[in-house]
Model the fold of this input.
Amino acid sequence: MPLQKLQTKLELVLKELKEQIIIFVETDRLGDASFLLKQYIKLAPTFLDRYSLEALIRAAEEDWSGAEKILNEGLSVHPLSFDLLYNLGYIFEEKQEILQAYHSYMRARYIAEGEREKTDIAAALKRLVPQMAGSVKSQDGEISTVIRAGEIAMAVTTKTKELLKRKELLGTIEKHIDKNASTVLEIGFKDGIISKNLNYFGYDVTAVDPIKERILNVIAGEWHDNLLQAEQKVAKFYYEIVDLEWVQKIPEFDVIIAVADKNIDIFATREEQASDLLKALLQKARKQLFIRVSDGHSPKEFSKADLAAIAASSDSALKTIAAPDQGDDQIPGGLSLCLINKHSEPEPFSVPIGAAAQHSKSTIFEVELKKCVDLYGAGYVDDRQHFVEMLRQYREDPELQYEDSFLKAYYECFQPRNTEETLF
Done:
């Protein structure tokens, strides 16, 4: 029998087995379903549906740990399977492991394509809303986010100084990134600030970090938006081990950003491999490479001298776009943020203003403050908007307490029972 006909016949047999297994599970004939699954595995031990079907049977038996194990085994073979990631999220949800469910659903959301997949993920994330809550507080130069998911509470604390540094890096990249670029890869996303904001600006962003705990930083920073605006386009965050071999295998991106601390450690490489890694990064960047380098010699950072030599050998333009950071005594000469433009000088991005927003991919745009109103129609300039009034009070008295604030009086007096009372 010709190979193509044999393949077609196998697919038909597998399809019939799959349909019958599902029927047996739905009619609670789990023994029969398990028997047919064994036949399916003999014919196609690593087919995608094999893992979903076994997880289905384990879930029907309420063997949640067994279902989780087989789905993770499937993901090691099919890491970009929407069905496996979605099903894993569902298993975690059933186990009341809400943070893990959220993370699995988000990973599925990154690769969702058809409307059915996007709708299913939006519904799954909305199911988690009643089980997640969070709060933010600022104290002693630190900002802490506390997330409660089911029975688990997680706190992520970041120094305000570090967040401001990252915001400054974002501002520098924003002024130089190519307006006409589309795809962006950030390696070493740390707190996710850069990738999340570039996504808001309209770029298709993928971010990876080899430090697993940094996924928690992203969850802490964006969970509320993702649950309540489940249909929005998002930056894709992944935990992955990054090294020279990994860089050589990834597809090309218009822009690559590598501005994390201790870049050589982030790339899990040795100092003697640094030059090869820089070459590989430049090869994978179609238009621009943003990278943090040492002006002197450091075993933890890429060398600016090496970067300059590699740029020159590829006829690419290298420039320093941020002055050396003299605050790190461990790095001789400090650190610089450098940019390599592989082609002619690009048109830099700028946040669209007014009517220009309709021709931009950016979801962030500027509007004159006098044209803005809050949810109840109060203007921020000519009306006594409650948040504006409180900020004015705070500017005059930085020791202001809530009990003495305009905000307290506003909430005590303004307690509408319905929309009619709110507006009229």
